[in-house]
Amino acid sequence: MAKAFVVAAPASGSGKTLVTLGLLRTFRKTGLRVRSAKVGPDYIDPGFHAAATGAVCFNLDLWAMGKAACGALLGQLAREADLVIVEGVMGLFDGPQGAEGSTADLAAALGLPVVLVVDCSHQAQSIAALVQGFSTFRKDVDLAGVILNRVKSDRHEVLLRAALRGGSPVLAVLRQSDSVHMPSRHLGLIQAQENQQLEELIESAASGVARETNLDNLFQKGTDFTNQVQVATFVAPAQRIAVARDEAFSFAYPHVLDGWQKQGCELTFFSPLNDEAPDLAAEFLFLPGGYPELHAGRLAGNRRFLEGVRNFKGMVYGECGGYMVLGQGLTDAQGTRHAMAGLLPVETSFASRSLHLGYRQLQTLGGPFPVRLRGHEFHYSTAIENGGAEPLFHASSAAMLDLGPMGQRIGKVMGSYAHIIAAEAP
Asked: By the 8 A CB rule, do 416 and 406 touch?
């Protein structure tokens, strides 16, 4: 049994990721076994969590996985920890339109208390109204306390504490620091493995947390979370699976890979950027999403990798960036076209940028997948030529808006822009 709580915020940009990293590293330094999870379909924040704790971070997505699977994954983390910290997504009550999936929904479903990180840089007494509103908006959400972030001075702290007197307890007061910054790019933060100052960033965040936080008090705010029955979120498509893994293909959900291994599958990993070929003895090849558009020239010249994909005898599946690499060509942001594997009749371009973002309900039209899946789409590239193959899915949004056919499949080769999160819960 481990203590568990959620770190949330009124809105994106409040600093909850840095605060979470500081908490994870600081509690770890006390000797506790600390694990973490991230609400929603985010790929990048979990990499930072893993760097702070030294252990894998799972996504908990109530809309895509359902309550039972989220509880099982959190229970798995709890079996290996003394404390599990779950970082929320966006604002506390923000989620898919007309469906459960917000951080508040997850906290209520699993009985987890919420610690609210408030950006105080542009407010003083008004914080009382904000915190009162968040603490009373939903009776099924337990607001355990607040962390005052980006406080500018001692005088500023006095004003904030006075305004909150008699309300939600103040658990920490973290000072404004212009030197602690998390660089970003078009899909969010720069990936953890690409950040050269990663350790310095985490240590800086931990230093502020350790200095300004009563760790024992915060630890006791967590609820005791018990182990729950394991639930498979995504049935393995084969017994031996080759998985691309490097800075260009890093968007593979840990809960999916971990779940496949728990089903008895053998996973082998290879790096396309290092011109490695997939394991030809595998029965299924998985090219996850990532940032192939940033490395398109290098990938186009890696003949061993491309020939390995073309000669693979089993099923070949690409998600988002992996789907782009299975196509005929990829045009980068500078307008230069790079030839890709040529296995699917799709031509993609990052020069013609258009944001595609949202949850996806997927009806499988072919391939080894369950009939009904839930996933997520988040990309700026566009398919400028798309035809000559059967669709892989029929897609709709979380709000049941029909999006039509999605992806492509020819024989044993298939892919789409969707990232599969889980099979639809019964």
From this structure: yes
* Structure tokens, 87: 């970082």
List pLDDT tens digits, range 162-204. 999 999 999 999 998 775 655 554 444 455 555 557 888 899 9
The first and second tokens of residue 15, run together, are 């600093």
Residue with tokens 């309900």: 361
C-alpha–C-alpha distance, residues 148 and 119, integer Å: 7
- What b/e string do you get for 308-318 counting C-beta neighbours within 10 Å, with b at 16 or more? bbeebebbbbb
pLDDT tens-digit map of 95-107: 998 889 999 999 9
**Could you tell me if 42 and 14 are in contact, meaning their C-beta atoms sit under 8 angstroms apart?**
no
pLDDT tens-digit readout, 374-389: 999 998 888 887 778 9
Tell me the two tokens of residue 227: 């182990």
CA–CA gap between residue 401 and residue 399 (Å, rounded):
6
- Under DSSP, is residue 25 helix (H, G, I), strand (E, B) or coil? helix
Do residues 16 and 37 touch, judged by C-beta distance below 8 A? no
Residue 6 has pLDDT above 70, yes or no: yes
Is-catalytic flag, 320? yes
Tell whether pTM > 0.85.
Answer: yes
Contact 251, 288 (CB under 8 A): yes
Assigned token pair, 388: 């000559």
- Of 57, 70, 265, 320, which one is the catalytic site residue? 320
* DSSP state at residue 213: B
Burial class for 136, CB neighbours closer than 10 Å (0-12, 13-18, 19+): exposed
Q: Tell me: the pLDDT tens digits for 252-299?
A: 999 999 999 999 999 999 999 999 999 999 999 999 999 999 999 999
Rg of the chain on CA atoms, in Å = 22
